[in-house]
Design goal:
Layout lengths: L7 H9 L12 E6 L2 E2 L3 E2 L5 H13 L2 E6 L6 H4 L8 E6 L6 E2 L4 E10 L19 E5 L8 H8 L6 E5 L12 H7 L5 E5 H9 L5 E5 L12 E8 L4 H13 L1 H10 L16
Parallel strand pairs: 1-4, 1-5, 8-9, 8-10
Antiparallel strand pairs: 2-3, 5-12, 6-12, 7-10, 7-11, 7-12
């Protein structure tokens, strides 16, 4: 994500101001850590749903929004939030241990993406047809820390027909993770397994009709999960900001859902246990 805000010039201007001049009063700012090139989540033009959500939060609080931009990859939290350059990451998994998380504001799922004219209608990683299809997946690195569908497909013995697309990609191009969805559109792969918000957003914008189907396998490949609750993350110990954000989430559930739906995010409800819990 990110170009850091330069405060040196502002500091020089303040020092040069007349000593008796009345100091201006600035509204507090929601200081957001964000990726400048990662739609549908965020970009430097403010077009992502996390950008829009930050604006909604700030408007409710009577604050402004400022950004620290940094590519969202390894070291992102350490170089931004933990470094004190910004105060909130707008999208992190529930219980993410590097930050203090808010209550979830949406829950989404990994999905299959295929061309509608292929009529594949796949919904499970156990579907035997996957052995004969070329399958696009995101790859994070060579240390085994890849998305859940990659591990589940490996358990099914589906390896040789996987086509990996680095999730970080070529950062000189717009929204590098979207190359996986482009591969489906262009026919380079038969089907892709991707995180729902990314897939839903770019499928809506594809010139070729695409089918987005939730992967309905939660529980079948335990401990792997395919659905995740997403929260906002603040620095550990920043209970005041966490509580403000929790209050916003609680009061604006319908508006948040409408925002996400407009971006094509597949929303799922928490799985209920027999006792009514999660």
């Amino acid at each position: 994500m990110r170009r850091l805000t330069d405060t040196a010039l502002l500091a020089a201007l303040w020092i040069a101001a007349p000593a008796l001049a009345e100091e201006p009063v600035y509204a507090p700012a929601l200081r957001v850590c964000a990726d400048p090139n990662n739609l549908p989540f965020s970009n430097q033009a403010g077009e992502g749903f996390e950008n829009r959500l930050a604006e909604m939060v700030a408007k409710t609080l009577g604050w402004s929004v400022t950004y620290t931009w940094w590519p969202q990859r390894r070291g992102f939290v350490r170089r931004t939030l933990k470094a004190g350059l910004c105060d909130v990451v707008m999208g992190v998994p529930e219980h993410y241990d590097l930050v203090e998380t808010t209550k979830p504001y949406y829950r989404s799922t990994y999905v299959f993406v295929s061309r509608a004219d292929r009529h594949l209608d796949l919904a499970s990683l156990e579907d035997s047809r996957l052995h004969a299809l070329s399958i696009g997946v995101h790859l994070i690195g060579d240390d085994g820390n890849n998305p859940p569908p990659v591990h589940a497909l490996g358990q099914e013995g589906i390896v040789d027909n996987l086509r990996g697309y680095p999730i970080y990609g070529d950062y000189r191009e717009p929204n590098p993770p979207a190359r996986l969805i482009d591969a489906v559109t262009d026919g380079d792969v038969d089907i892709a397994a991707a995180w729902g918000p990314l897939a839903g957003y770019f499928a809506k914008r594809s010139q070729v009709p695409l089918l987005v189907t939730p992967i309905d396998d939660d529980g079948r490949f335990a401990p792997l999960r395919f659905q995740f609750a997403i929260t906002m993350g603040v620095r550990k110990g920043d209970d005041a900001l966490r509580d403000r954000l929790n209050a916003f989430i609680e009061a604006h559930k319908a508006a948040i859902s409408a925002l996400l739906t407009g971006y094509g995010v597949p929303l799922v409800e928490p799985v209920q246990t027999a006792s009514g819990g999660h």
